[in-house]
Recover the amino acids of this structure.
């Protein structure tokens, strides 16, 4: 990887909403332009890393090779890397610099099970592979590392002062990796955190994500011959089905913003054997963390009732739990300014043909391909998913963005997203994210008023709430994908 140390002096890009010290005109813009050129110069090296992680396609807490590759990249650039933090083998914290401010960058790298797909515009799973990067975390982690390295260059050249930290955060997809890292106090001295997420458009992230509690409910019965001695059996599968039925009836009597999903992960082995074990995996989501707690308790009661009614026993294991995402408008507006400067992505003829085939496969009306080149306006939206970034946002001012790594209209967690993530359509969007994150972090390092205003907003929003993880004191669920 080519390294170019910027030699221009830093200054501050003033924000209309935030009073900042006066600086000589053009100094900050010149430094930012150099950072943009540096990332562009190293684009091929970062693309190679992202596509290698795409090939690894390792699921939550199993991202051994993916994590190691990012760690190695950071070590080679002079970062001090601490591995196995928060009792998670694939989690790490990479640090460069000293003193304040401390600016954190989040890096994810876990894949999703059941989404194996080649980098082609037709559905075509990779033989012998189950998982795929349907949420673009191969791009996520790499862009954050790229931004971190650019900030390290500035620190090394004494153009900015402070500390940059890249947090390697495993198992975002249901494993709540960041929750354990927050619980371990790894963010307690951080002044602000910047993150991003792959998507189908370019915008500052101002949408609320849902709080989430998840658990695996396990029922234990008595096996017997299903035809010759059914009266001697007690079906664990009956208990799962009874629980699911009661929860489905409960949907009428819970807040309409609630989302409840489940999959039966074990339901017996043969129809003529009464199952003595069955398991169902549940997610409970709501915009407010307190409501999630209450609704989850009702789901537990349904499980207890199902066990009582079927003559079985039940235990459950909390797998994950995440807070809703606390938005910071001060930081989001600063990020939006930098995203406007960076701009979106454009596709060449080959990528355009690929993209059109992807869009055709979706089967519904989609925005034009040229929408990937535009930057969305600043606006607040309703969200439907969940993220463990929410827990980070409740302990430190946090800002995020979305970059167009999939052709417009592509949904996350789809084979189409996996296909785009394995091509330059994905890596071009990744470069947009790396550039925007680096520029936003520069503002945080060099504009004390911006950081102070963000902290004031954060304190007002958190109020008297004292952070407490929704997953309690359980240890990381390192085998939740098994």
């Amino acid at each position: 990887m080519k390294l170019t140390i910027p030699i221009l002096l830093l200054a501050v890009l003033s924000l209309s909403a935030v009073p900042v010290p006066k600086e000589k005109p053009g100094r900050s813009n010149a430094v930012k332009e150099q950072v943009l050129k540096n990332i562009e110069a190293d684009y091929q090296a970062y693309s190679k890393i992202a596509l290698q992680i795409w090939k690894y396609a390792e699921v939550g807490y199993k991202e051994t090779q993916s994590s190691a590759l990012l760690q190695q990249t950071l070590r080679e650039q002079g970062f001090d890397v601490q591995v196995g933090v928060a009792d998670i083998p694939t989690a790490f914290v990479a640090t460069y610099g000293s003193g304040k401010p401390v600016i954190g960058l989040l890096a994810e790298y876990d894949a999703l099970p059941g989404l194996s797909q080649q980098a082609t515009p037709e559905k075509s799973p990779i033989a012998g592979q189950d998982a795929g990067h349907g949420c673009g975390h191969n791009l996520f982690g790499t862009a954050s590392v790229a931004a971190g390295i650019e900030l390290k260059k500035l620190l090394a050249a004494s153009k900015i002062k402070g500390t940059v930290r890249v947090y390697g955060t495993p198992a975002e997809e249901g494993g709540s990796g960041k929750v354990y890292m927050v619980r371990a106090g790894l963010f307690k001295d951080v002044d602000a955190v910047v993150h991003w997420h792959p998507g189908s458009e370019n915008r500052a992230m101002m949408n609320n994500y849902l709080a989430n509690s998840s658990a695996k409910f396990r029922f234990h019965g008595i096996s017997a011959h299903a035809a010759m001695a059914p009266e001697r059996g007690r079906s664990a599968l009956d208990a799962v089905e009874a629980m699911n039925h009661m929860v489905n009836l409960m949907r009428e009597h819970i807040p309409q913003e609630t989302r409840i999903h489940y999959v039966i992960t074990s339901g017996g082995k043969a129809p003529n054997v009464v199952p003595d074990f069955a398991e169902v995996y549940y997610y409970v989501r709501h915009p407010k963390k307190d409501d999630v707690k209450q609704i989850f308790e009702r789901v537990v009661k349904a499980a207890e009732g199902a066990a009582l009614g079927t003559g079985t026993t039940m235990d459950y294991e909390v797998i994950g739990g995440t807070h809703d995402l606390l938005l910071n408008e001060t930081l989001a507006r600063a990020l939006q300014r930098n995203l406007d400067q960076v701009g979106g992505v454009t596709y060449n003829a080959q990528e355009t043909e690929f993209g059109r085939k992807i869009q055709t496969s979706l089967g519904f009306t989609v925005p034009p391909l040229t929408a990937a080149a535009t930057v969305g306006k600043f606006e607040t939206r309703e969200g439907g998913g969940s993220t463990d970034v929410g827990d980070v946002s409740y302990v430190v001012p946090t800002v995020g963005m979305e970059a167009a790594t999939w052709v417009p209209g592509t949904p996350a967690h789809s084979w189409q997203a996996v296909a785009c993530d394995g091509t330059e359509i994905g890596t071009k969007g990744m470069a947009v994210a790396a550039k925007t994150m680096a520029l936003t972090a520069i503002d945080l390092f060099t504009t004390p008023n911006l950081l102070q205003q963000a902290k004031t907003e954060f304190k007002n929003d958190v109020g008297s709430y004292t952070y407490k993880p929704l997953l309690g004191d359980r240890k990381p669920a390192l085998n939740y994908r098994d």
In short: The first helix runs from residue 27 to 41. DSSP finds 13 helices and 13 strands in the chain. Residues 27-208+325-462 form a domain with the Aminopeptidase fold (CATH 3.40.630.10). The longest strand covers residues 211-220.
